[in-house]
Design a protein that fits this description.
Helices cover about 40% and strands about 20% of the residues. By secondary structure, it is an alpha/beta fold. It is globular. It binds one RNA strand through helix 5, strand 14, helix 11 and helix 14.
Length: about 400
RNA sequence: GGUGGGGUAUCCAAGUGGCUAAAGGAUGCAGACUGUAAAUCUGUCAGGGUUUCCCUUUCGAGCGUUCGAAUCGCUCCCCCACCA
C-alpha cells in the first residue's frame, strides 16, 4: 500500500488522552480534533461548497443510502467521484446507510438512539432486516430496495469518498441487552463482509472505518472493540446507542475510548454539541459529525460562545422577539461573513419573512463557529493548556 | 333611490338555538432539534384567579323572544355587488 493515507499524532501532553493529530488523505490533510459537516445528499443544506470552504471546514460527509436512491452511484461515478460531483475537493467520508436502517426502521422512535421519548411518529420505510441485509421501501417512490454490506461498499466504492463505513445495525436505547448483543454480533458479521468486499475491489484512494457497537453495556462494547481492533480497518468509529442522557453518553464514550486502539483515528458518530465534543476530546476522540449545527441554523438558531462556562444553552434563537431591534451581530467576537455584515435584527427579519437567506447566513455562522471551536480545542492541546481549557468549560 | 350579499377574536375565516370562550388557517409568543425522508416538528394564543376548576367580558350597536342567543325578531350604523 502506498502512503496515500496516514495518521500521525502531533500533540499530546503526559498521560492525557486528548491529542492533536493529522489524518492524511489523497484529498489533503485533516487536523484533529475536528468536525465533519454533513452533506447527506451531497450538499451542505443551504450552502454552496464554496461558502463552506470559506469557513475553514476540512471534512465533509455524504450518505450512501440517500445518494444510492438519488441520483444513484453510477451518476456520481461518471463525474469522477463525490468530490468532483459536489465541488468539495477535500477529504470526504460516506456513511454506509446503517443509521438509516435505524432511523427509517423504528418509525416514531428515531430519537430512541439518544434515549429520548417517542414523539413525531413516522411510518417506517424499513421492511425487514435479515442476515443478508436490510429491505427498504424507497421514501422517494415506494419501490423495494435491498441494502447489504456488500452493496453498501460497492456503492461507496463508486461514490469514491476517501473514507467509507461498513454497514452496521444501530440499536435503540430501550433494547434489552441480549437483543443488543445479537445485533452487535450481526454488525460484526456485516463489518467483516464489508471488509471483504472492500479488499476484493481495493482502491488505494479509499480506506475503511470499523464501527464499535454494544449500546450502553461496557462488556458488549469491549467485545465489539476487540473485534474492531483485530480487523484491518484504517480507522474506527463509535456508533449505536450512547445512553439515555448526556452523562451516560460521556461515560459510554469514555470507557469505549479506553480500550480502542490508539493508533487509529477515532470518530464519534452523530455527536456535535459543544460540550459533547469537549467530553469526547477529553476521552481521546479525533473527529465528530452532526447535523445539529446546520439543522438548527435553518431553524433560526445560532451557536454562541457567550456563556463560556454555562453550556445549558449553546445557541440563541434569532426568531425570538427580543432580537427584533437588536443591532448587534450574533457574536462580536466572530469573524464569519454573517457576523461581519449583519445584525441580529436583520437575521430576525429574514426568518420572520421566511427568507431562505436567513438559513444560509446562520449556516455560515454555525459552520464557522464549529470550525473556530475545533481550532480553540486544538490550540489548547498544542499549547499544553488542554486540562485548563477543559476544566474551564466543563466543570 | 332599488335589489341582493355581508359585518365573528390581532388578521383571514367556519359556525344558524344549548355539547361555543367560539373549528381551521395566518400572525404573535415560546420550545425541540446530535452517523438529516427536517428551510421541520411541538406547545400556546380574550382577561383575571386559589389554574384538571372558578370569575369577568366577547361574535357591528341597541332592544326584544327564550330556561338558554354569535345563531331567531325589530330598529339603527357600516361595507360590497349589480341596477337606476
Amino acid at each position: 500500500m502506498s502512503d496515500n493515507f496516514s495518521y500521525t499524532i502531533t500533540a499530546q501532553k503526559g498521560d492525557e488522552r486528548a491529542h492533536c493529530a493529522v489524518i492524511k488523505t489523497p484529498h489533503g490533510c485533516i487536523e484533529t480534533p475536528n468536525f465533519i459537516f454533513c452533506a447527506t445528499h451531497g450538499a451542505i443544506k443551504g450552502l454552496a461548497m464554496e461558502q463552506l470552504i470559506a469557513t475553514g471546514a476540512q471534512f465533509v460527509l455524504g450518505n450512501t443510502y440517500h445518494l444510492w436512491l438519488q441520483p444513484g452511484p453510477d451518476v456520481v461515478e461518471k463525474h469522477g467521484g463525490l468530490q468532483r460531483f459536489t465541488g468539495w475537493n477535500r477529504p470526504m467520508l460516506t456513511d454506509s446507510g446503517g443509521f438509516q436502517i435505524f432511523s427509517l426502521g423504528y418509525g416514531g422512535v428515531v430519537d430512541e438512539i439518544k434515549g429520548k421519548k417517542d414523539r413525531s411518529a413516522r411510518p417506517k420505510s424499513l421492511l425487514k432486516i435479515t442476515e443478508e441485509g436490510a429491505f427498504f421501501r424507497s421514501y422517494l417512490d415506494g419501490s423495494l430496495c435491498f441494502l447489504s454490506p456488500e452493496r453498501s461498499i460497492q456503492i461507496q466504492q463508486k461514490l469514491g469518498a476517501d473514507f467509507i463505513l461498513p454497514l452496521d445495525e444501530c440499536t435503540p436505547f430501550h433494547m434489552k441487552k441480549d437483543a443488543t448483543a445479537a445485533s452487535m454480533q450481526r454488525s460484526h458479521r456485516w463489518e467483516f463482509r464489508s471488509l471483504q468486499q472492500f479488499y476484493n475491489n481495493f482502491n488505494d484512494r479509499q480506506r475503511m472505518y470499523g464501527i464499535v457497537q454494544g449500546g450502553v453495556y461496557e462488556d458488549l462494547r469491549r467485545e465489539s472493540i476487540d473485534f474492531v481492533n483485530q480487523q484491518p480497518f484504517f480507522a474506527q468509529a463509535i456508533g449505536g446507542s450512547l445512553g439515555g442522557d448526556k452523562q451516560q453518553m460521556y461515560e459510554v464514550v469514555d470507557f469505549t475510548m479506553r480500550y480502542l486502539s490508539k493508533n487509529r483515528p477515532t470518530h464519534l458518530l452523530g455527536i456535535g454539541g459543544l460540550r459533547d465534543i469537549l467530553e469526547g476530546v477529553q476521552s481521546g476522540v479525533d473527529t465528530f459529525d452532526c447535523v445539529h449545527p446546520t439543522r438548527i441554523a435553518r431553524h433560526g438558531c445560532a451557536l454562541i460562545a457567550k456563556p463560556e462556562t454555562d453550556f445549558a444553552k449553546e445557541h440563541i434563537n434569532l426568531k425570538n422577539g427580543i432580537y427584533k431591534e437588536d443591532l448587534n451581530p450574533i457574536d462580536t467576537e466572530c469573524d464569519c461573513y454573517t457576523c461581519r455584515n449583519f445584525s441580529r435584527s436583520y437575521l430576525h427579519h429574514l426568518f420572520k419573512a421566511k427568507e431562505s437567506t436567513g438559513g444560509l447566513l446562520l449556516t455560515i455562522h454555525n459552520a464557522r463557529f464549529m470550525v473556530r471551536w475545533m481550532e480553540k480545542i486544538r490550540n489548547a492541546i498544542q499549547t499544553g493548556t488542554w486540562a485548563e481549557f477543559y476544566k474551564a468549560h466543563c466543570c
